[in-house]
Write a structure and sequence with these properties.
Length: about 450
């Protein structure tokens, strides 16, 4: 190593955790590539004027998280993590309580535990045998697919049950859609600030990924058409209904314009609608505007209950066999027990009741955001689970994240959502679903205060 990428002035209190985070950033940025030998505990403590115990604690944290490995007699080395996603949520353990506004999740309460307990009690008495012993996806999940079609259609996306593939959540559906729509070496385009795992996933699948310019409605049509003229774009991946980090919500005209370009150049559309029917006043889905060209996926994990890991991939009619085959070889089938629970909730009205409860609580939490942020310039979406806060100068996103963390609040930096090579704007994503409303209000007050003041150097705890 020719030059150590971290200086003492980079660290804030508490120093061990700040050092661990700075090392993570250096590893993920490539400043400390895989195989790099780190300084000894004593050498680094001398260089940064820290105690040996502080450095040892930081190294222990990095080892626990899998970033480095220690070899007796040789030292500590950076482990290979090429292609891994930068997770936007709070990852390093803390020595004090953190108000976690970094994880995108729905609101949960006693009602969820009560509903699940009642359903599990019923299942103990009349669980279908096929749920336990069948390996046949279509026959085992036939009833579930029928009810899933009813749920998706009621949410505003008319769909034929034959086109639905049940999956173990939205991530599995996204993976199958990408594998079906594009082959290794082909180009996928998406929002320049988009899904935080898409870059890693496309890299793993051997696909090329290009980020496109966005505005308040998402991908700019002119940018999409320019990409199609310059290269053979195979698929357009987008989150058009407020799910993306910037809360962009595409209106009907914007959606139709993108559909027209996709049809003109023969581009598949992959539409992520993980929130499903959270917003009752949505624009028509791409799957409705261009059903023969769109892979659409949604589920119940975000809108009903995080632990109910179930999604549905709706595929174009001409791609049904191909998508089923991709799903078989990567997942085989959705977990029948999860499907059985979701089906019962759809049939008996529990799902609709939990959806209504979720809307009510998210509406109330977004009202708290508006009251705390006041004149701040931020973006949100109706019944959304997060807001996007552009930072006033001279704030840098990573500095803001560090300052907020030191005051007990975790938020996500804009760089976590970058899909291209260009720099991300100075902004943070703030989630509103986890914790109590009182914790949310306290965390938002701290963020608003920080955003209204210039950054100040923090003292080191050595």
């Amino acid at each position: 190593m020719t030059k150590w990428p971290i200086q003492r002035e980079d660290l804030v209190r508490p120093a061990y955790r700040s050092l661990a985070r700075k090392l993570v950033e250096a590893i993920e940025s490539g400043d400390l590539p895989a195989g790099t030998q780190l300084p000894t505990h004593r050498a680094l403590s001398y260089e940064l004027e820290l105690s040996v115990q502080t450095v040892s604690r930081a190294y222990d944290e990095l080892g626990r998280l899998g970033f480095i490995s220690g070899e007796v007699g040789r030292g500590s080395f950076v482990r290979g993590r090429d292609g891994d996603a930068q997770v936007p949520w709070n990852r390093t353990s803390s020595g004090f309580n953190i108000i976690d506004l970094s994880m995108l999740a729905p609101v949960t309460g006693d009602i969820h535990a009560q509903c699940m307990a009642q359903t599990l009690s019923e299942l103990s008495r009349d669980l279908p045998q096929s749920t336990l012993v069948s390996f046949r996806p279509r026959s085992t999940l036939e009833r579930h697919v029928t009810e899933a079609a009813r749920w998706i259609t009621a949410g505003g996306v008319p769909v034929d049950p034959e086109r639905i593939i049940p999956t173990n959540g939205n991530t599995a559906a996204m993976s199958v859609a990408l594998q079906t729509a594009a082959l290794p070496g082909e180009l996928v385009v998406t929002e320049t600030l988009g899904h935080h795992t898409l870059k890693s996933l496309t890299s793993t699948l051997g696909l090329r990924l290009q980020g496109l310019s966005i505005d308040s409605e998402g991908i700019v049509p002119e940018a999409f058409e320019a990409a199609c003229r310059n290269d053979a774009v195979k698929a357009l991946f987008l989150m058009p209904s407020g799910l993306g980090p910037t809360c962009a919500f595409a209106g009907t005209e914007r959606r139709q314009a993108l559909c027209d370009i996709a049809k003109k150049y023969g581009v598949w559309i992959i539409e992520s609608d993980a929130w499903g029917p959270i917003n009752p006043a949505r624009s028509p889905a791409f799957a409705e505007l261009a059903p023969d060209q769109t892979f659409y996926f949604t589920g119940v994990t975000k809108c009903l209950l995080p632990g109910l890991r179930l999604g549905w991939l709706v595929v174009p009619e001409t791609m049904i066999s191909a998508a089923r085959n991709r799903h078989l070889v990567t997942n085989w089938m959705a977990t029948p027990l999860m499907a059985e629970i979701a089906t019962r909730w759809i049939v008996d009205g529990t799902a609709q009741a939990l959806l209504k409860w979720q809307r009510k609580n998210l509406d109330r939490r977004n009202a708290i955001v508006r009251s705390k942020f006041g004149p701040l310039d931020f973006a949100s979406s109706p019944y959304g689970m997060h807001v996007w806060l552009p930072l006033p100068e001279p704030w840098k996103a990573q500095d803001f994240v560090e300052h907020a963390r030191n005051e007990g609040v975790a938020v996500a930096a804009s760089s976590n959502f970058r899909t291209g090579e260009e720099a991300a704007p100075e902004a943070v994503r703030i989630c509103v679903g986890i914790g109590t409303e009182q914790e949310l209000a306290k965390g938002l007050s701290i963020i608003a205060r920080l955003a209204g003041n210039s950054p100040e150097p923090a003292l080191l705890a050595i």
